[in-house]
Specification:
By secondary structure, the protein is mainly α. It folds into 2 domains: 40 residues, Arc Repressor Mutant, subunit A (Orthogonal Bundle); 127 residues, Tetracycline Repressor, domain 2, CATH 1.10.357. It is built from 10 helices and no strands. Helix 1 packs parallel to helix 8, helix 2 packs across helix 3 and helix 5 packs parallel to helix 8. It is globular, with a radius of gyration of 17 Å. It starts with a helix and ends in an 8-residue tail after the last helix.
């Protein structure tokens, strides 16, 4: 349901119906749609635990805060699960849809929503940020391309934070559908 309808379009009742169980059972085991979604995508981290620090950052420091958050996830114990999810998404469209939905609905949409842009511009800016973050993960953790693979987190933040900041708040040519 999440892959087909996205996070916003999926409901506990609909998911329970497809699974042939009572919605109360889904609530009992997962507690909320958010927790069920995190389980479904095998998310390496819970955005509700990570985003408050990012969202508390000054507008001019948001890019660095986003990169720092991503590095905290990927340099932590969730790295192996995250890499498995990313590798699976590359070859499996269903997993790719779930990963896209996770990245957009649970992380980037919440960050760009604080910036006051119209919905189309928010979506375009979020996709630019995603390109930078996924590129960082590919280079640092999958390809292990030096010097990025062994660079300190703060040097990665210093190198990539300004680009992410520009994508979030600066003058950019936005991709069009």
């Amino acid at each position: 349901m999440f892959a087909e309808r996205g996070f916003d379009g999926a409901t506990i009742r609909g998911i329970a119906g497809v699974a042939g169980v009572d919605p109360a059972l889904v609530h009992h085991y997962f507690g909320s749609k958010d927790k069920l979604f995190l389980e479904a995508v095998a998310a390496p981290a819970d955005p509700d635990e990570l985003l408050p620090e990012v969202l508390a950052a000054d507008r001019d420091a948001l890019g660095a805060a986003v990169v720092r958050m991503a590095l905290r996830v990927w340099d932590g114990p969730a790295r192996h699960g995250g890499l498995a999810l990313l590798r699976s998404a590359v070859g499996n469209e269903w997993t790719a849809k779930l990963l896209r939905e996770f990245l957009v609905s649970k992380v980037l949409r919440r960050v760009v929503a604080t910036l006051g842009f119209d919905p189309d511009e928010r979506a375009a800016r979020a996709s630019l940020v995603a390109s930078q973050l996924i590129g960082m993960v590919m280079v640092r953790y999958v390809l292990r391309l030096e010097p990025m693979a062994s660079a300190s987190p703060e040097s990665v933040v210093a190198a990539l934070g300004p680009t992410v900041q520009r994508y979030l708040t600066g003058d950019v040519v936005l991709p069009e559908p």
